[in-house]
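Hey all, quick one. A colleague (J.T.) asked me to put the iron/sulfur cluster job into the tracker so the inputs and the structure tokens live in one place instead of scattered across chat threads. No bug as far as I know, just bookkeeping. Sequence used:
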Amino acid sequence: MSSVSPSSVFNVKSNEKAKDLGHRQTINFNIGRYNAVVPNGKKQFSDLTRVRQKAKNTKWRAIETLDQQLELFEKNISARGVRVIWAENADEACAAVGEICKAKKCKSIVKSKSMVTEEIHLNEFLESMHIESIETDLGEYIQQLDGEPPYHIVTPAMHKSKEDVAALFARKLNTDPSLTPEQLTLVAREKLREKYVAAEIGVTGANFIIADTGSIAVTENEGNGRLSSAWPKTHIVITGIEKVIPSINDLSFFWPLLATYGTGQQLTVYNTIVSGPRKSDETDGPEEMIVILLDNGRTNIIADAKARESLYCIRCGACLNACPVYKNIGGHSYGTTYSGPIGSVITPNLKDKGDWKHLSYASSLCGNCTEVCAVKINLHELLLHNRHTAVEEGYSTLSEKLAWKLWKRASLSRKLMNTGSGSLKNKVVNSMFKSWSRGRSGLRFSAKTFNQLWKEKNGDE
Ligand code: SF4
């Protein structure tokens, strides 16, 4: 049975989306709103470049000493009765959640927004165990109702207009199709409240793992993360190991940076630090807390000294909003959990390089992603690095190798470059590289060669 390769799916989907003007209009509208508010958030920093560099340096230290930071985190949080589970891959993480669910006789879970749980396909796994898993972030709830994965790492339903959401609610929840966004939010709120009360387990991610206090920090705007972590009797945190920061004091710049670059706010509405389950003298909080630390390919990235920088990412989503490719093909065309520039950088390294190397080419290399990155990750250089390692490690196809060989040979030979007229070259080259000109205008050679032009301008000098 032949399976379709991720690169073919990407080509088909991105071609379709690039021509979808309605999609482009919605995305440009929503990104336009983001662009309008980010400058306001930035005003809070007296020296933004310095803060971004400080954040980058802090993440550098965290990743360079990752083993020590994680062990310190484990020691500190375990001392308060939290169980820490190390999961090497998605299967191990899901199996750990499955065992907890069995032990708790769990029938339903409330889940706050977490890209890591998307990465391990937790909802599908829970469904196979006949456990209901409800997304409680409004954007994620909309996507779950529609049977779609998140479109964007910060704004999961960014590609939907308010009319789309009203129509979706009418279809799935029998509501009036003319409801306003405020009314739709109230509908979701009412539905979700019932779920919080019934759920035996709450699942959250973590925006930061704090080593020196042994805590996790969750940032959100709706309060659903707090309810998911505090209401059910058991709280499971699933987080990538790269989320670690050395000290609780580092939140003083990571929180405002994440808020500004994520949504243009000075500070996100709810920033919660959780350091353990409810103590005997406390009235709120879960009886039990478990943290699952997920590797799932991250140590492969650490092994590459250059690519390691991609683990500094705080998932603010700014590079997606700035990317001309993302703005045209949208989040779903990538076929990955993490889309946009950061997704194109990490996916080939987290997954199979042979299957996903094409994403490193889904870039104009304009450098806008690097320009806007909250923690100054050199994204466009890392895309080039991915291309380089893919070639070095032998992932190029024969046709690719042949094409570059021919190109190099021709470019280095003055005789070949001067052979034939411009129109003949256009014809030959464009018919040889049909896949290049399918989505672009064809290559156009100058009617005169460089030598002819030089002679005309400078004579025989
Ligand atoms: S790479 Fe930078 S801009 Fe992109 S999501 Fe991560 S922190 Fe934000």
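Adding what we noticed when we looked at it: The first strand starts at residue 83 and ends at 87. The chain has 24 helices and ten strands.
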